[in-house]
Amino acid sequence: MRRASPYSYAALERLLREHFPFPRRLLQLHALLLTSGALLPDPERSAAATAITAFPYNCLAHAHLRLSAAPSSSSPPSAPLRLFSAMLTAGARPNCHSFPTLLKSASASGSASAAAALHAQCLRWGLAADRFIACSLVSAYGRTGHPSRDARKVFDEMEGSPDLAACNALLDALCLAGDLEAAGTFFERMAARDAVSWTTLVSGLSRGGRHRCALEVFRGFLLDSSMGRRLEEATLVSVLSACANLGGAEGLAAGMAVHAYMVCHEVELTAFLGTALVDMYGKHGRLGCCRSAFDAAHDKKVCTWNALLSALANHGMETEALVKFEMMRAEGFLPNQITFLAMLTACARAGLVEVGLYWFEAMVAEYRVTPLMVHYGCVVDLLGRAGRSVEAVQVIERMPFAPDASVWGALLTACKLHGNVLLALEIGQKLMALEPQQSGRYVTIRNVYLEDGNWQAGMRMGEVMQEAGIKKTVGQSSVVLHGTSSP
């Protein structure tokens, strides 16, 4: 016989309601619920009592979801899904409050299979018609990598006319799936739009590389008669991202106009808004404005430092980048993958080989940061620029994954710089196998032959390009006049 819980279910439910705003207290109550046996199935409990046992699981799942979103949290995003499994095992019946939290958990963990399984559970328990659950399903399908047709199917099957929240969820799903044409068409057909709708489309277009279109949509947002209130942080961050990635004077002018709006309306420069502004000025090479935006940002985060370090490293201020890196560490910020990428880039361009190698080793041994392909590419570039091609090849051989074209390309450039013809030709063959239609690789190999005096081989490489139908990319110049680019 199971020992009866010393606490009445009503008392435990009251505690959960009182402490719901405090997720860490709810975890303490979770321990109490487990040790008291209140979460175990009770054959003596009435059917009515059994029907309400979803409540503690819903509260605990929501607490875990909030904790997993907090910085330096030890609660994994999948914790609510494990609670749902325990809930079903205990015989509790999920309700309309259960699935939105679970679907957000699936989205946070990026689990496409979990989203599909939860959809099946919604159908099983007859809850798929609930408007809030259907909206959560659309969002989960978009954020877990499902094709856009899956989110569209759930949206089309919603009962009644979809509300604005559901339309925004589908718009976001279409943008995340990269179906930007469908997203634009759906946006035009929306009966009502709010700031979330406009921001979602601007962000989606910018993320898809259509930065000029993103700015056009943003201008439409400003001209929309129903948008009388101040712009939200998310909107400003999205449009600054588009400005940062739109090359030339057009992107810089638009970014400065957004900055002027922020100053005129006294918009607080939060960490994320400050990061977006630093990144925008940094990518356009305006380091003075970049430093000023960094100094003005409140409550700086690692991403804010990363934006400044990347700007300095990419625009010839390598020594200042290393100094700022030490300041960042002194203020207690932990470097991440983007931080080390900026540092390795700075070391490679400044020729600080030993410093770069030291931080590459410390990245793994001291900070437990896993190197990505781009980090290995920077180390190869670092060694290659210094003429240490043998060590660069050894780094490539020790990589835990097959090198891509960017890594081989970095070594090829170094070989060409130092006249290592044999290695350059060997790498060139690898690159042409990896990217057979990339004209730049053929041109580089042809130039290596010509610089080495092998005119016949150089001419032959040109013939190979012609036979394969590969044309050299023609260099172009453009002038931006009144926002219009002209060749």
From TrEMBL:
Keywords recorded for this protein, A-Z? Repeat, Transit peptide
What PROSITE patterns is this protein classified in? PPR
Q: Which windows of the sequence hold PPR repeats? A: 163-197, 301-335
Keyword Transit peptide part of the UniProt annotation:
yes
- Give the protein's recorded name: Pentatricopeptide repeat-containing protein
Q: Which organism is it from?
A: Urochloa decumbens
